[in-house]
């Protein structure tokens, strides 16, 4: 008698099982802890970005164009309070976050996930007053794990280097399907709609001419949320080829076994990650030899091709400042840190930074280029005013799993970035509520108390 063989699960079925059915208790505690920390880090950037021009424009545009007459399909915008559609609220928060380039990322995707995941959670949780802390962290984890693999699959199967919105929209769909209690077929159609309409914008165009477009994540959030609502009403769009095409299968085989959630990098600086190794190299040499800016005569940076393509001059706008290399290196030489104030307003015309930039040169090194995107490498040579030549050696940008940022430093970063917008009392309460989400008795509503009142 021949034994009956069960049919292997399709890739989509495995994704749906994971996204819709994986309970918080079936996710490692270390993964949920990482989700809480990435939530905190992203919230700090959302708050810090709120008064910046791009965020103001995005929120105003959402009120003009992306409203809703149905309370069940509307939500308040983060750190603003005005009510718009679900898609409009997610779009506005993701757009403003994308325009302060201090949020987390994932090396294999060459892009960012939390920038859409946290706005999606904050938007949808407004209709889930009893959402537990662990369930909120599980939803965050679903967003990261699905978006991360979609990004890897996309970059492995197409020729262009696309912005994050092209693939992080699929993480938004997975979260929305879970949090809105949708079934597998509705989720499948929504994934197909989102992938089809995802903003497949070319990243290197934005690097060459930096603007408020940044990494396409505002549109990624909007497309993902809109696709879910379309599918709920019967609109069709399957299949998503980054999930269902045979060539995509290998990129999903470790789902639920290898946790990308724990492999995200945290940015010490609100600058494109490609510049971080150069900044870290200068930082390390200055710390090791107790240098200050008057001690430095020249700085030469060797880095990978994409880093060498970053803007070389004094940036005229915030967008360009965040996609530059000599500028943030000069800021760190001058002040020993890079804050939101250095990439906006009078920080862009700082005469000390402009003078230090004249001492900095940049070259591409094939050795570093060969290690991208797995790492973001550079080495730095500093010539001092007394004639010494000091070398950093090869530096991989810190903040990722290969050189993790200590938990205390991550929390300090959140406080530094969020406090100017939220004030000391509110930012401390938001910190405590977010870090407490790992407690089985916690509620995400304790975080939401601090997310929607306007800044100021």
UniProtKB/TrEMBL annotation:
Residues in MmgE/PrpD C-terminal domain copies: 269-434
InterPro entries: MmgE/PrpD_sf, MmgE/PrpD_sf_1, MmgE/PrpD_sf_2, MmgE_PrpD, MmgE_PrpD_C, MmgE_PrpD_N
SUPFAM superfamilies assigned to the protein according to its UniProt record, in alphabetical order: 2-methylcitrate dehydratase PrpD
Entry coiled-coil feature ranges: none
Listed Pfam families: MmgE_PrpD_C, MmgE_PrpD_N
Record-annotated MmgE/PrpD N-terminal domain positions: 14-242
Gene3D superfamilies associated with the record: 2-methylcitrate dehydratase PrpD
Membership in a protein family: Belongs to the PrpD family.
Protein name: MmgE/PrpD family protein
The organism's taxonomic lineage, starting at the top: Bacteria, Pseudomonadati, Pseudomonadota, Alphaproteobacteria, Rhodobacterales
């Amino acid at each position: 008698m021949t034994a009956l063989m069960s049919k292997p699960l399709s890739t989509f079925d495995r994704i749906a099982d994971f996204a819709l059915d994986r309970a918080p208790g079936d996710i490692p505690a270390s993964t949920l802890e990482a989700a809480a920390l990435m939530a905190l880090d992203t919230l700090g950037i959302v708050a810090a970005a709120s008064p910046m021009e791009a965020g103001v424009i995005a929120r105003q545009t959402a009120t003009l164009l992306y409203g809703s007459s149905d309370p069940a399909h509307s939500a308040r915008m983060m750190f603003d309070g005005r009510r718009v559609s679900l898609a409009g609220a997610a779009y506005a928060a993701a757009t403003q976050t994308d325009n302060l380039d201090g949020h987390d990322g994932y090396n294999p995707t060459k892009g960012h996930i939390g920038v859409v995941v946290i706005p999606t959670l904050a938007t949808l949780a407004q209709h889930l007053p009893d959402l537990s802390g662990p369930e909120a962290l599980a939803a965050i984890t679903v967003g990261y794990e699905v978006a991360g693999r979609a990004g890897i699959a996309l970059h492995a199967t197409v020729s262009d280097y696309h912005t994050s919105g092209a693939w992080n929209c699929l993480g938004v769909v997975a979260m929305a399907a879970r949090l809105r209690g949708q079934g597998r077929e509705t989720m499948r159609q929504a994934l197909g709609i989102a992938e089809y309409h995802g903003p497949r914008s070319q990243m290197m165009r934005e690097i060459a001419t930096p603007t408020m477009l940044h990494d396409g994540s505002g549109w990624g959030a909007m497309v993902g949320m809109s696709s879910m609502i379309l599918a709920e009403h019967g609109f069709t769009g399957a299949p998503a080829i980054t999930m269902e095409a045979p060539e995509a299968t290998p990129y999903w085989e470790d789902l639920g076994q290898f946790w990308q959630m724990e492999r995200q990098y945290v940015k010490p600086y609100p600058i494109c990650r490609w510049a971080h190794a150069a900044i870290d190299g200068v930082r390390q040499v200055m710390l090791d030899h107790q240098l200050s800016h008057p001690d430095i005569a020249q700085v030469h940076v060797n880095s990978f091709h994409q880093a060498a393509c970053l803007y070389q001059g004094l940036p005229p706008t915030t967008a360009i400042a965040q996609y530059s290399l000599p500028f943030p290196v000069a800021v760190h030489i001058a002040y020993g840190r890079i804050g939101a104030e250095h990439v906006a307003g009078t920080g862009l015309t700082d005469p000390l930074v402009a003078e230090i930039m004249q001492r900095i040169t940049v070259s591409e090194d094939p050795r570093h280029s060969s290690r991208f995107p797995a790492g973001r490498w550079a080495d730095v040579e500093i010539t001092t005013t007394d004639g010494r030549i000091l070398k950093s050696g090869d530096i991989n940008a810190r903040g990722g799993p290969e050189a993790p940022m200590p938990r205390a430093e991550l929390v300090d970063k959140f406080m530094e970035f969020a406090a100017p917008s939220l004030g000391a009392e509110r930012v401390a309460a938001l910190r405590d509520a977010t870090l407490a989400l790992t407690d089985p008795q916690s509620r995400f509503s304790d975080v939401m108390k601090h997310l929607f009142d306007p800044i100021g």
